[in-house]
């Protein structure tokens, strides 16, 4: 357990934006109100109305890392991020049904994906989600060269960096705006509550009521 939380404090790791916003009602259901706004404050450790509960603001992809190492007791992360992380040291108790989207393969309008796959062409695939993409194409028996990107995946096929992308899609607006089409849905994605395995044992009395409140509120 990290020195930062050697006391009885609970640390929750969240990312700014949709995960923070969608977790607020769940925290409220557990009687916890975050008293600072990460969009207007530069602070990375936010207080709540409960002096024993604090929220740390980290990048979405870093949430599992903070929880795995016990620097945060629990956190909220997308299934996409958790699959890339691998889940080591994490207990994943509940699907919170927030930040819902899907992981998909997309190509430029005009690119004949089906034929390329059928003919056994080697595809260049740009993505932030290399593990998920690797597994998907391996299952299909499609040979791919994976190109790791950290954002703006939609650009890759437009400038010839790749034939296809693997990215999350919600409304499809980003694909449409960039002359791309979704050709395969890989899996549904939503965010999960993850808990550090040691914290779950040591701080169970404090964590359990919050986990249960999240569970009830996320089913509504
Ligand atoms: P980072 O800031 O580290 O690059 P990010 O930009 O992917 O991460 P967010 O955009 O806040 O972070 O996304 C957080 C999670 O929300 C993702 O891991 C995914 O599960 C989900 N998500 C991503 N895009 C959408 C979307 N358009 N609609 C709904 N959920 C989404
Ligand atoms: C995500 C994702 C896609 C977009 C898909 O981007 O990377 O680009 O959402 O959503 P849509 O199908 O509704 O258009 P996000 O909004 O998180 O921006 P970011 O990647 O810059 O954080």
Protein model, in words:
The longest helix is centred in the last third of the chain and has 16 residues, at about 205-220. Strand 7 (about 125), helix 5 (about 130-140) and strand 8 form a beta-alpha-beta unit. By secondary structure, the protein is α/β, with parallel strands linked by helices. It is about 35% helix and about 30% strand. The protein has helices at about 20-30, 65-70, 80-85, 115-120, 130-140, 155-160, 175, 195-200, 205-220; strands at about 10-15, 45, 55, 75-80, 90-95, 100-110, 125, 145-150, 165-170, 180-190, 190-195. The protein has a 6-stranded mixed beta sheet with strand order 2-3-1-4-11-5. Strands 8-7-9-6-10 form a 5-stranded mixed beta sheet. Adenosine-5'-triphosphate binds near residues 78, 80, 81 and 168. 1-O-pyrophosphono-5-O-phosphono-alpha-D-ribofuranose (PRP) binds near residues 167, 169, 172 and 174.
């Amino acid at each position: 357990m990290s020195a930062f939380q050697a006391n009885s404090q609970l640390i929750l790791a969240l990312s700014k934006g949709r995960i923070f916003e969608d977790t607020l009602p769940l925290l409220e259901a557990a009687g916890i109100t975050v008293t600072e706004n990460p969009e207007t404050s530069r602070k990375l450790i936010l207080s709540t109305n409960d002096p024993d509960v604090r929220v740390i603001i980290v990048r979405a992809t870093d949430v599992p890392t903070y929880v795995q190492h016990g620097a945060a007791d629990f956190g909220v992360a997308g299934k996409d991020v958790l699959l890339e992380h691998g889940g080591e040291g994490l207990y994943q108790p509940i699907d919170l049904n927030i930040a819902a989207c899907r992981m998909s393969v997309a190509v430029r309008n005009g690119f004949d994906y089906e034929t390329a796959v059928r003919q056994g062409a080697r595809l260049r695939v740009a993505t932030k989600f290399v593990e998920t993409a690797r597994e998907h194409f391996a299952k299909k028996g499609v040979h791919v060269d994976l190109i790791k990107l950290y954002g703006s995946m939609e650009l890759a096929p437009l400038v010839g960096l790749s034939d296809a992308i693997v990215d999350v899609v919600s409304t499809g607006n980003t694909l449409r705006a960039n002359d791309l089409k979704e050709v395969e849905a890989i899996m549904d994605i939503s965010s999960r509550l993850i808990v550090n395995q040691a914290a779950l044992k040591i701080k169970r009395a404090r964590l359990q009521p919050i986990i249960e409140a999240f569970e009830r509120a996320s089913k509504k």
